[in-house]
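Re: your question from the hallway

Yes, I did run it. Sequences:
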Amino acid sequence: MTSTAREEILARINEALGRRGGGDYVSSTARTPASAGSAGAAGSAGAADESGSAASASQASATAADVGYRHEGTHTGEELVDLLIDRLVDYKANVHRATGDPAETIAQLIEAHDSVVVPHGLETSWLSGFDGEVRVDAPGEELTVDELDAQGAVVTASAVAIAQTGTIVLDGSQVCGRRAVTLVPDHHVCIVRVADIVDIVPEGISRLDARDPLTFISGPSATSDIELSRVEGVHGPRTLDVVILNE
Amino acid sequence: MKIALFATCIVDAMYPEVAQATVTVLRRLGHEVIFPLGQSCCGQMHINSGKFAQAEPVIANHVRAFTNTEWDAAVAPSASCVASLGHQQPLIARRMGNEALAEAAAEVSERTYELTQFLTDVLGVTDAAADLGSYFPHRVTYHPSCHGMRLLRLGDRQSSLVRSVEGIDLVELPLADSCCGFGGTFSVKNPEVSSAMLADKVRTIQATAADVCTGGDASCLLHIGGGISRFERTGRFEGAPDITAVHVKETSSTTVGNEGSEHLTAVVGADDDDHRTPGEDGSAPVEPSRVQAGFRVGQATVHLARILASTKEDPLRVPSEGAAVSGGSLR
Amino acid sequence: MTFLGMPLLPPKRRQQTDLPGGQGNIIEPESFPDVSHQHLSNQQLRNNIGHATSTIREKRADVVAELDDWEALREAGARTKNEVMANLPEYLTQFEEAFSAAGGIVHWARDADEANAIVTDLVADNAPVLENGRREVIKVKSMATQEIGLNEHLETAGIDAFETDLAELIVQLGEDKPSHILVPAIHRNRDEIRDIFMDKMPDAGQLTNEPAVLAEAARRHLRHKFLTTKVAISGANFGIAETGSLGVVESEGNGRMCLTLPETLITVMGIEKLLPRFADLEVFLQLLPRSSTGERMNPYTSFWTGRAEGDGPQNVHLVLLDNGRTRALADEHGRTALNCIRCSACMNVCPVYERTGGHAYGSTYPGPIGAILSPLLTGVEEQGNGSLPYASSLCGACYDVCPVKINIPEILVHLRGEDVQANHSPVSSQLDAALTGASWMMSDGKRMTATEKGLPLAHAVTRGEQINALPGIAGAWTSSRDIPALPNKSFRQLWAEEEGEK
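Structure:
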């Protein structure tokens, strides 16, 4: 039944687009409209050109990359770091800076907790200043949801930080952890290496792979659902501490 | 320059004085004005009502009227009608399968200007007092019509010209860019929503305590004037919910240098008190008309062409000077 | 007045598709003026919506002004979505292949009924029966599932669906309907929300009307559900054809909870939600948050591609929904409405929406986008949907803010044309008759001249006084507006006299 629905919907689309007969569709194995690979924006322009009968085919030749929006920001160095800090603070994240070894800074941030969780790839030395229990979430040794719920905090690294929007991206790597680990504990301490900071969104996207489970985080959880005024702290971690690390 | 006046149907039939003022202004700058007699309407009323088949002959008539004679530029005292020529006429002609009409309409449209667009962009008039001798020593507020703002992108062309009139006291209209609710047949098809929009517009105009509200579109001014007149006569908007989201909260005077300027703050339902459930704590909901500043009886609307045409020798009178007002429009 | 002998032009081209229209919560039950009437007189509603929309308008304007390439981003957004629509079969099949290769299962649903049936079967297969004899699912806010009436359908099948978005929770607990696509409870103020929570949350205790207190109450209310429920249902903001990835843009973390903790994840997504490439997000993740909540970036955005080994749900499904989208696509003058990314900027600036609220549109999709999308999905013949395109003064504010440049005013006018062809005879109403007469008069300047020769008579009949009340449809105008006295002579008469004197 589902295959029937599939064929019928694809046939409807062809009819709607005024393509021949309306009944047949071009399968993806015959033609692939976009190149594989996550940086295909510019490279895949040609594919859309081929749909001769499509009503807006003439417009389709232009990909997003063509129209002159910014692909790179203008901030560098300390200016870039300052921008990130400004934007993080604006959305109610707490920002701290560390140089070399962040262990001391991290220890201060989590000293009130009895137990914290870290992904298995995180530098063990980063937690060396913490007196409580450190639970390591590793493949085959995952903490249960209830165990995660019992942790005072989670400490992770990050994949990319976008300064302009105050956004930190986690990509499920062994230093960022699986998604539940950074979600269930109420306090997230996230280390951002200066080298991982980019200025604007396009620069951030270009460093990521869509096939990873991605989480973009901009400040602690918040809602604007009551009279459209922003309130921090709903279901996600209510406290977000960001440690910017100069290595 | 030989300028063809496109009077627009509403000005032709309801506000001949606006067309006369437009002619006066253009002649004052030394230009010849002609009036193609075959003209009637841009067709917007039919187009916006979905009557494309009925719009087509109206469009054809406009194109015929303006291609029968030679002229350098066409000028209309309306942003909405000029926008319709460019944005709608070719589109609708094409929809009706009339490509020749679409092309002819586009050609006429390319040489047709809204009055202040023409004065500013083509003739380079930036100072109405100096270039036109415009004189209007009264308190004026200005409503930018939607199609002037968003289709013609007039920006501050209209307000700048009005501000440059000698003696004028131009006060900013709170929430000026909100639609007055006219929208052609919208005001007939959805009269209650339209009235609710109009009520808010009228309240902000009243709060400015201006003698007149001006603008570049007679249709919007007809509508707004009609609302002002009704509200002044009856104290409410009959047949429409007498409620509003707009509260004009305060008038604070600030003095900058030698110039005193007044600042009005319009708030859209934003005071905490307004958010109390009616009757809670024994309180009635805030009555909007009581919190607004500067209620003024005797306001009227007037097209900016008439303000530009007003001179010391032949001044346009305001209501407080005994000028005739009819249906909220200055006569 | 008679219109005998007048040429009534037959429509030259009938644009119609026989593709089936959508079903479900996308239908205005009566005409918009009738439905909006009851909402217009609600002062509390007007205050709540006026306050909220004016707040969000300012926030949006501020963050948009921060980007000097905003117009280029809008253009890129529009072109990308046009590219998707022009090549939709290819992108859909490409998506399907990639999503399936990553361990996800794709289902296709022609309409609301079919989508509801697919989801119901999946829930029945994967959610355990609880002590109360029913099954439970948690939900992330989703326009598509609202559109197809999924919750109501699930309820009849013994499945309780718990909305986890704060505003959806307010609506669900208040046994209310959403009135805004981003903030479904925009019509409720903090006092009303406190009352609903205290009434409907057994564990809430005493609450104040502080938004922070109310948000905390929602957190406590839902926490256990998040940690224990086996099946979640979501929508999706984006599907990436190139990689088979799905994305949800949210604020509260309820989305992350639903997308991460349950064993089974079922996503319902309209077929138009695709983007060609992952890189296109560099545009859309700028356009959407700034247009939507007026933030530089929303707090959380999640992407998943099928099943991620050891991370999140291992049983991952996607239902691709048509439900009238192909019908909308067939309308060459209206199809760009499908480019909508559901940001809600158009309703936040709409003077009509601001006064009527979202319920007046009768559909999951209110405001300007709803006024075009609902009739495009169903056809203008469907109940009151033909009246929706008239619910606009054509002020154009919506087009200015649309992040993918949907020319809403133009499509509104186009759909009025469709409505006239489908639902009106030339003289089926007084307005139709008046416009027919006006067309005849205005098609010829001589007729206009002749008609205006009646002005002195009209001037005399009205005794040169302003007009305060008129019968019939003109009465709709004079219900709240006066009309100036008619001039004695039209401009063209005055002009002719002046020319004659020369």
